[in-house]
């Protein structure tokens, strides 16, 4: 399987979730199942079935996180010399050529993307249009409402805050 790019912060977020699932949620769910078993007939025990469903979800998520982390290629943008070129992990400020509005995005891995926080996936149309371009270049983004032209104002190699 191909390596999946991920920022240092993205890796830490997944590791934190994995640790919580293993050390907090898993024991709590196991105890809930044991408590529900003590209530008798399991066929009609809603608490037991709910706890088993939670267990199934948690174990599935643990496997998913372990798989993602084992295939992650961790990229620390702060260790790469700034060149003005848009690369994975860079924080890019764009100016919309049509109205001079500016917007700043950070290019991150799939699991880290959060449009509300201006974290965009490396696979998003806007990131694909920017990667490899330099400060001062214009990029055309194929948006649902038509093409949008941006100018790359700045490219920074910042760690997430």
Your description of this structure?
It is a single chain. The mean pLDDT is 91. The protein is 38% helix and 25% strand. It is of the alpha/beta class and 161 residues long. The two termini are 31 Å apart.
Write down the overall geometry.
elongated
The main sheet comes to: 5 strands, mixed
Q: In what order do the strands lie side by side in the largest sheet? A: 5-4-3-7-6
| Number of individual domains | 2
The CA-CA distance between the termini, in Å, is 31 Å
Instruction: Tell me what the CATH architecture of the largest domain is.
Output: Roll
Query: CATH homologous superfamily of the largest domain - what is it?
Result: Transcription elongation factor, GreA/GreB, C-terminal domain
The CATH topology name of the largest domain reads: Chitinase A, domain 3
Provide the β-strand percentage band: 25-35%
Taking pLDDT < 50 over at least 5 consecutive residues as the criterion, the unreliable ranges are none
Helix coverage percent: 25-40%
Name its key features.
161 residues; alpha/beta; Helix Hairpins; Chitinase A, domain 3; 2 domains; five-stranded mixed β-sheet; two-stranded parallel sheet
Layout of helices and strands, plus pairs?
Elements: E1 4-7, H1 8-37, H2 46-70, E2 72-75, E3 91-96, E4 102-108, E5 119-121, H3 125-130, E6 138-143, E7 146-156
Brief sketch in words of this structure:
The protein is an alpha/beta fold.
């Amino acid at each position: 399987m191909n390596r999946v790019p991920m920022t240092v912060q993205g890796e830490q977020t997944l590791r934190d979730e994995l640790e919580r699932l293993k050390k907090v949620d898993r024991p709590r769910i196991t105890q809930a199942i044991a408590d529900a078993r003590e209530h008798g007939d399991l066929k009609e025990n809603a608490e037991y079935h709910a706890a088993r469903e939670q267990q199934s979800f948690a174990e599935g998520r643990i496997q998913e996180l372990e798989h993602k982390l084992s295939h992650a290629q961790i990229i620390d943008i702060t260790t790469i010399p700034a060149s003005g070129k848009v690369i994975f992990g860079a924080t890019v400020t764009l100016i919309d050529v049509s109205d001079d509005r500016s917007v700043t995005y950070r290019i991150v891995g799939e699991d880290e993307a959060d449009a509300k926080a201006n974290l965009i996936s490396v696979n998003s149309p806007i990131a694909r249009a920017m990667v490899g371009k330099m400060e001062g270049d214009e990029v055309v983004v194929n948006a649902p409402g038509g093409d949008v032209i941006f100018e790359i104002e700045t490219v920074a190699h910042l760690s997430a805050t």
